[in-house]
């Protein structure tokens, strides 16, 4: 209920910011109070909120990734199920981002907004693909943290978390330490997200006052792109997995998980839907407790296909709004960053907003762009959470089938 309440508050802040910005926009040049005092103060509030978001990224991602990787336990015990699950989750997430980027390129939601910014003068030149791959791996992880190089931080955190497992009891102590840090960072994130409605109000007020009512139309395209992308991903990717690997029809699959999908759409919570999801796959699909109890909780934690698809659409939207050309290497960077970041930001209140901040930063896009999408997040959250849960159940069925379990007809 707290998360829903926060989303509603952000939406209210977004709407009020647009109304207030449109109302005062034409009068700003002729009013000394507005131009010298009101607008600069509101702009300061928005910039403080952006800095608070940036403050969270490095400690939150590193601690949660180390704790998450270490919590898996004995690597040998995971065996085939663990490897299959992780690979499938990461692959489907990468495909979801690609679909999101494709929808963003198709709908062009930000074209015509023409929001000026210094980003055009500092946007990065296209890098060769080899350099993009090399840049994933850090030479100095401390320097990567200082410079907020998210790809390198994520890779090092994964290595560090696995090493905690291999180090045995001593490694467990380190893992417990980072788990405590992660819990503290979740609380810090909660505090920051409580001021998000004010930050969003401030950011969108300044934008609306400067650029007028023309900024409204693109939001319809963003919503359409995300919903259509989620439908495509579910009908093609998940249905394809079920048909080819499980030898069952898409109708059988969607009918079996309809309760979980509807619950996810309404509650907007993968974790809150987990009891329903577990019941559906065991009762409707006949999947064993051994498989479902491992695959589904892990999916509720790290599988964020819907959120990842949303990142692809929104990154294109922000780039188009600020007139920043999206090169192939930048789009590849979005795929890699969002895929790996989906592990580190899962389960955190405001995860979509934090994840979008990371993605925009990784390719040199202005994080001010999150103000353009934060207000409609309440609309998009239902679709992407529903897709997340459908993805969890699809991977669970595939893993069970490949482990020789007989699925109900």
Tell me about this structure.
The protein is mostly helical and 409 residues long. It is 79% helix and 0% strand. The chain is built from 19 helices and no strands. The chain has helices at 2-24, 32-70, 75-107, 119-122, 129-134, 141-146, 150-166, 168-194, 196-211, 217-246, 250-256, 258-267, 270-283, 289-302, 305-321, 328-344, 351-362, 370-374, 377-402.
Question: Helix and strand layout, with pairings?
Answer:
Layout: H1 2-24, H2 32-70, H3 75-107, H4 119-122, H5 129-134, H6 141-146, H7 150-166, H8 168-194, H9 196-211, H10 217-246, H11 250-256, H12 258-267, H13 270-283, H14 289-302, H15 305-321, H16 328-344, H17 351-362, H18 370-374, H19 377-402
Describe, in short, the structure shown.
By secondary structure, the chain is an all-alpha fold. The chain has helices spanning 2-24, 32-70, 75-107, 119-122, 129-134, 141-146, 150-166, 168-194, 196-211, 217-246, 250-256, 258-267, 270-283, 289-302, 305-321, 328-344, 351-362, 370-374, 377-402. α3 (75-107) crosses α10 (217-246).
């Amino acid at each position: 209920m707290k998360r829903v309440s926060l989303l509603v508050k952000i939406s209210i802040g977004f709407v009020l910011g647009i109304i207030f910005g449109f109302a005062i926009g034409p009068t700003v040049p002729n009013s000394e109070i507005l131009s010298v005092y009101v607008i600069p103060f509101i702009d300061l509030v928005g910039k403080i909120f952006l800095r608070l978001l940036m403050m969270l990224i490095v400690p939150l991602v590193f601690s949660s990734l180390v704790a998450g990787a270490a919590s898996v336990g004995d690597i040998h015990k995971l065996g085939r199920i663990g490897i299959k699950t992780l690979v499938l989750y990461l692959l489907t997430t990468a495909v979801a981002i690609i679909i999101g980027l494709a929808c963003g390129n198709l709908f062009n939601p930000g074209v015509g907004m023409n929001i000026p910014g210094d980003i055009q003068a500092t946007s990065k030149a296209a890098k060769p693909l080899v350099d993009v791959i090399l840049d994933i791996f850090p030479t100095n992880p401390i320097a990567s943290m200082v410079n907020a190089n998210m790809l390198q931080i994520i890779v090092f955190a994964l290595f560090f978390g696995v090493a905690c497992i291999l180090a045995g009891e001593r490694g467990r102590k380190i893992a417990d330490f980072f788990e405590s840090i992660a819990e503290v960072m979740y609380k810090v994130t909660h505090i920051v997200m409580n001021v998000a409605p004010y930050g969003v109000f401030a950011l969108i007020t300044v934008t609306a006052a400067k650029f007028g009512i023309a900024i409204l139309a693109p939001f319809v395209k963003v919503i359409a792109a995300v919903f259509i992308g989620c439908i495509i991903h579910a009908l093609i990717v998940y249905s394809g997995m079920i048909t080819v690997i499980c030898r069952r029809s898409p109708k059988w699959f969607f009918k079996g998980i309809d309760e979980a999908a509807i619950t996810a759409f309404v509650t907007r919570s993968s974790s809150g839907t987990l009891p329903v999801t577990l019941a559906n796959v065991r009762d409707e699909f006949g999947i064993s407790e051994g498989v479902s109890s491992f695959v589904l909780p892990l999916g509720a934690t790290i599988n964020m296909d819907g959120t990842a698809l949303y990142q692809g659409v929104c990154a294109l939207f922000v780039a188009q709004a600020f007139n920043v050309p999206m090169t192939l290497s930048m789009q590849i960077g979005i795929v890699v960053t969002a895929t790996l970041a989906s592990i580190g930001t899962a389960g955190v209140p405001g995860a979509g907003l934090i994840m979008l901040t990371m993605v925009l930063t990784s390719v040199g896009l202005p994080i001010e762009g999150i103000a353009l999408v934060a207000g409609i997040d309440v609309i998009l959250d239902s679709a992407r959470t529903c897709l997340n849960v459908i993805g969890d159940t699809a991977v669970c069925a595939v893993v069970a089938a490949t482990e020789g379990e007989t699925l109900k007809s």
